[in-house]
Amino acid sequence: MAVATWTLAKQTALEQATVCLGAPSYFLLHYKLSVNVETTNHIHTTTHNLLSSSAFYGGGASWEKQVRHSSTPHRPNGLSVLVTGAAGFVGSHCSLALKKRGDGVLGIDNFNSYYDPSLKRARQNLLSKHQIFIVEADNDAELLKKLFDIVPFTHILHLAAQAGVRYAMQNPLSYVNSNVAGFVNLLEIAKAADPQPAIASFVELGLRIEHQSPLFRRAQNGSTGEKSINVYVTQEDKEVARDFTYIDDIAGCVGALDTAEKSTEAVERREVRLNSRVYNLGNTSPVSVRKLVAILENLLNVKAKKNVIKMPRNGDVPFTHANVSLAL
Length: 328
Description:
Blueprint: H1 13-21, E1 26-31, H2 53-56, H3 60-71, E2 80-84, H4 89-100, E3 104-109, H5 117-129, E4 133-136, H6 141-150, E5 155-158, H7 167-170, H8 172-192, E6 198-204, E7 216-220, E8 227-233, E9 241-242, H9 247-251, H10 256-259, H11 265-268, E10 277-281, E11 287-288, H12 289-300, E12 306-310
Helix pairs in contact: 1-8, 4-5, 6-8
Family: Belongs to the NAD(P)-dependent epimerase/dehydratase family.
Keywords: Isomerase, NAD
Protein name: UDP-glucuronate 4-epimerase 6
C-alpha cells in the first residue's frame, strides 16, 4: 500500500529530490523513472570533483574487472545493483544483504570527513571480504555514465546523502549538492541508460547514536582520563526520545528492489500511471535517552557518568515516532 504516489512525469527530478528532503524519519522511496524529467544534465554533486581522469579511467582493465566482478549476480535471475552510499551504516548492511542472496553489488561512496572516515574504511574492508567493490567518488555524472557503460545495472539502491541536522546550519550547500544535485544526477543518468534500471531510494532523516549525535556525547575528563556522557533534554527539561530501529529491519528495504519495475513507453506517454510508492520504516516504539543509557549500563555492567544538558535550538527534534502502517 502506498503512502504517496509519485509521478515523475508530472514533476521535475529536482522537485522530487526536494520532496525527499522534507520527509520525516526513515522513508523508502520506490518508483519508476519517466523520461520527462525537465532538468539539466550538468549538475554536479559537490564543489570538489574527486574524479580526475586518472581516478577511474586511469584504473584501466584492472579497475573495470573489479567493477564487473562485483556487480555480477551469482544466482539465476539475480539483480545487478548499484548501491550509492555503500560504505555508510545502512548502505553496508544493505549491500551485504543483497550479496548474501546472490545479487551482484557495486558500491559507490565519497568517504567524506563528516564523521570519522575510519568507520567507512572498516566497512569497506568488510565488504571487500565479501567480494563487494566500492568505487570511491561522488555521484558524478561522468563517472556514473562510465559505470553504466561497463555494467548493465538492473537496479539502483540510492542511499547516499549528506547526513545530520546541525551541520546544515553551518553548510547548507553541502546538502543541496549531495542530497538534491547528486540525486538529480543519478536520475538523469538512469533515465538515459539502456537498459534502464529500476530505482529504490532510502532517505534517512532520523538520528543515529554516534559521536556526532545530539542525544548524548562522550566528554573527556582531562584530569582522570575517564569519560562522561552528555545526556540531552529539551529546553523545557522534558525527556528526549527516539524511535530507534534495528539495522536489519531497515536493511530489509532491499525487498523493494524485487517489485520495482522499469518504465515503459506507455508510462512515458502517460497512458499508464506510474506505480510509485513511499514507505515509512521504523520501530514504532520510541525510547527515552535516559532509558537507553540505563539499558547500556545494565548490559555493560558500568555506571555511566551523566551530564544532563539542554538540547540546543538548532533544528534537532526532541521526539521521533515512525508510523509504519503502510509498510506492514
